[in-house]
Design goal:
Helices cover 35% and strands 19% of the residues. By secondary structure, it is of the alpha/beta class. The strands form six sheets. Strands 1, 2, 3, 4, 5, 6, 14, 15, 16, 17, 18 and 19 form a twelve-stranded mixed sheet that branches. Strands 20-22-23-21 form a four-stranded mixed sheet. It has a three-stranded antiparallel sheet with strand order 7-12-13, covered by helices on one side. Strand 1 and strand 2 form a beta hairpin.
Length: 560
């Protein structure tokens, strides 16, 4: 029998009306702004009603270093949320929105898979409620007002050669990484070098995801630095009087989106910064709302725990005043064998030697969660039919040596029923109080260089950190300008603990090279660009877009 695709499973499921999901969530109809029958935004006024309600438990789902074999972090997050409901817990799922770039590129969407999905998956993976379009519009409004200010006389004395704000588009388009604009004569602006970032890398995305409300949003937008004057003074969006109009574009995007899983568990899908070039977490508003409404909020952070989980803890938790009660680290036997040197076509065969060689990657993530961050965790093995008993036993034995339990997750094939074992282990960890030992990777009062070293050495296990190029001058400038006490957001390849994507497993004796440091003053962190990481991806040789279609009735195919 042919295996059904994710989109076929989603399209065959009868969805509940979003009003019913809001009722399950405990949200009054007066706070629900419907976008059709199966998705809605929730008015931020709901927080006033919930302000005295205690928070539920926060469960963070992260993963090993990703490989082409796949790990299934979002699938596990959704299935765990459903599994918790099946064992009698009022659970909510909080996820990021997918970017159109990867949807049409190579990675795919972010709605889960198999029988553990959030739906309507086509809407979620495409335009959804328009949040990303609003973020891109706000980003580009600021860019337009900046260039217009210079064109209209440049009263602020902005140095065109020191503009740091780039335009944004939510698509993988390498052609736009570096451009020259303003051509065609004086009436078309002043020619200058420019460039585009993918929308999820825009500071506006980070600001939206970290804002607590419209007032906070407007203040954060006003602090965004767009460039410097000839006298070396920073110029902000507030200086350009742009933050009010930007906030007007974003006022609806700030409201969390409510959808459902295939098993009708309420899910908040809101915000979508990448974890390799941004902070990789869904919005603070969505997470807080899930914590207030439920017994358990299951959320995820992008890519491996060295990226998403580190930023979730060191940036989001700090700013939101929250902490995880338990962490789930997702792994597959297939991916671990790839870390051990097995090529993708050969992953279906039992190979205990390769698995043993790849296990240090998982074990380093486990050690980081338990010892660097002081949090209890469980390893969720996302099951594949080719996994053998000997392979599963080896993973469980090695994790057991670190005192960490392992649970087999079968949510892709069985939905919430396949996540019950994991759900029970998560409840046990949350009720054990182990999260009371929670700590950050570094303290905020350290100099910027010491924060970089703390992340690189404690989390990545690097030997050293080297500043090259403009980063040498930038680190001094940032501290002189008063930004030294901000947390650090590392922009690094997701495919390795190092900044070299070819170094799989758990490499040692490497250095992390930081080539650029810039402040995201509105978001409230310093971005460190390492290695060759880029803020605008490109499409692969055969992009997913070539296989996506829609018929005369509007039914989409080929999405996943």
């Amino acid at each position: 029998m042919a295996i059904k695709s994710d989109i076929e499973i989603a399209q065959e499921t009868k969805l509940a009306h979003i009003g019913e999901i809001a009722e399950i969530a405990g949200v009054g109809a007066e706070y629900v702004e419907q976008y059709g029958s199966h998705k809605a935004k929730l008015d931020l006024g709901v927080f006033d009603r919930l302000k005295d309600k205690p928070n539920g438990k926060l469960v963070l789902v992260t993963a090993i270093t990703p490989t082409p074999a796949g790990e299934g972090k979002t699938t596990t997050t959704v299935g765990l949320g459903d599994g918790l409901r099946r064992i009698g817990k009022k659970s909510f799922v909080a996820l990021r929105e997918p970017s159109l770039g990867p949807v049409f590129g190579v990675k795919g969407g972010a709605a889960g898979g198999g029988y553990a999905q959030v739906v309507p998956m086509e809407d979620i993976n495409l335009h959804f409620t328009g949040d990303f379009h609003a973020i891109g519009a706000a980003n580009n409004l600021l860019a337009a007002m900046l260039d217009n200010h210079i064109y209209q006389g440049n009263a602020l004395g902005i140095d065109p050669s020191r503009i740091t704000w780039r335009r944004a588009v939510d698509m993988n388009d390498r052609q736009l990484r570096n451009v020259v604009d303003g051509l065609g004569g004086r009436s078309n602006g002043r020619p200058r070098e420019d460039g585009y970032d993918i929308t999820v890398a825009s500071e506006v995305m980070a600001v939206l995801c970290l804002s607590s409300g419209v007032t906070d949003l407007k203040e954060r937008l006003g602090r965004i630095i767009v460039g410097y004057t000839y006298e070396d003074k920073p110029v902000t969006a507030s200086d350009l009087k742009a933050n009010g109009a930007m906030a007007a574009l974003l006022k609806d995007a700030l409201k969390p989106n409510l959808v459902q899983t295939l098993e009708k568990t309420p899910a908040f899908v809101h915000g979508g910064p990448f974890a390799n070039i941004a902070h990789g977490c869904n919005s603070v508003a969505a997470t807080r709302l899930a914590l207030k409404l439920g017994d358990y909020c299951v959320t995820e952070a992008g890519f491996g725990a060295d990226l998403g989980a580190e930023k979730f803890i060191d940036i989001k938790c700090r700013m939101a005043g929250i902490r995880p009660d338990a962490v789930v680290i997702v792994a597959t036997v297939r991916a671990l064998k790839m870390h051990g040197g097995v090529p993708k076509p050969e992953l279906g065969a039992e190979n205990l030697t390769a698995l043993g060689n790849g296990l240090p990657n998982l074990l380093q993530h486990v050690d980081n969660v338990t010892n660097v961050f002081g949090l209890p965790c469980v390893v969720a093995i996302n099951a594949f039919p080719t996994d053998t008993a000997a392979e599963l036993d080896l993973v469980e034995r090695k994790c057991g040596e670190l005192g960490v339990p392992v649970a087999l997750s079968e949510v892709w094939a069985k939905g919430g029923k396949g996540g019950e074992t994991l759900a029970r282990e998560v409840v046990r960890l949350c009720e054990s109080g182990g999260g009371d030992k929670f700590k950050y990777a570094y303290e905020l009062d350290l100099p910027i260089m010491q924060k970089l070293k703390a992340i690189a050495k404690r989390v990545y296990r690097a030997e050293s950190v080297e500043l090259v190029g403009s980063a040498v001058k930038q680190i001094k400038q940032l501290e002189e300008q008063g930004f030294g006490a901000l947390p650090v957001c590392m922009a690094k390849t997701q495919y390795s603990f190092s900044d070299d994507p070819a170094k799989l497993g758990a490499p040692r004796d490497f250095k992390v090279t930081v080539r650029n440091l810039k402040v995201s003053a509105g978001a409230g962190f310093i971005v460190a660009l390492t290695g060759d990481v880029m803020t605008m991806p490109g499409l692969p040789k055969s992009p997913s877009a070539e296989r996506i279609d829609v018929d005369a009735s509007g039914r989409i195919s080929g999405l996943f």
